[in-house]
Amino acid sequence: MDHVDKILESLRKFQKQVFPEHRERFRSLSSQQNPEVLLLTCSDSRIVPELLLQSRAGELFVCRNAGNIAPPHGESLGGVSATIEYAVEVLKVRQLVVCGHSDCGAMQGLMHPEKLEGLLAVPRWLAHSRRALAVVHRLHPDADDAERLTLLIRENVVAQMANLMTHPCVAAGMKAGSLTLHGWVFDIPTGEFDIYDERNGTFTPLSAERTAVEEVVHA
User: Fold this and answer.
1) CA distance linking residue 195 with residue 191, whole number of Å
2) 57 SS3 class
3) Alpha-carbon distance values, 182 to 33, 38, 176 (Å)
4) Residue ranges, the chain, pLDDT below 70
5) pLDDT score at 212
6) Which of 10, 163, 188, 199 has the smallest number of Cβ neighbours within 10 A?
7) What's the order of all strands across the beta sheet hosting 95-101?
8) Domains and CATH numbers, the chain
9) CA 87, 89, 92, 93 torsion: positive or negative?
10) Cβ–Cβ under 8 Å, residues 99 and 154
11) For residues 59 and 35, what is the distance between their CA atoms, to the nearest angstrom?
């Protein structure tokens, strides 16, 4: 079975075995959606938003790209900016989550631009994360490659949260109290989450932030 046949077989399995169990759910969503959360995360195939958040159809509005990046408002009014604006202004999401992850290829490329030689779009896209790289270089000059990658993944989440605040709809929603912004990092081999604590500028394991995270998911 080649790759195309495998994909088509998966579609048939969904139609015959999965969809019937969720028919009423999809029927109720056929003309409207009311997600509570906008999740900005990486395109990495190991990140499965609905699995991680144990959510059903209609509960998550997802924006994915290399490096879970949100360009500052006005700098690149493309698909990411349009998705953010639509989610906040039209769908009225209440929670906006930036979720990075371990072993992020985009952040590895940011650390080692020589690996991106011959690529045009990727280096330009990763320029939106240079702030994070500068912070890691300044604060952790002696870190080895593995440590720098972990620090960069976290700092990139913080940088994208700051970029999101440049979007008028996000800033207004935050000020009005109708929108809350969160930063997470998912560790692929352990399944652990670290949650950004803006009060002290650090990431805290999910176990220590249980109540805050449950408020995000179940709001």
Assistant:
1) 13
2) coil
3) 22, 10, 16
4) 1, 75-76, 208-219
5) 46
6) 199
7) 60-65, 37-42, 95-101, 180-186, 193-197, 202-205
8) 1-32 (no CATH), 34-218 (3.40.1050.10)
9) positive
10) no
11) 4
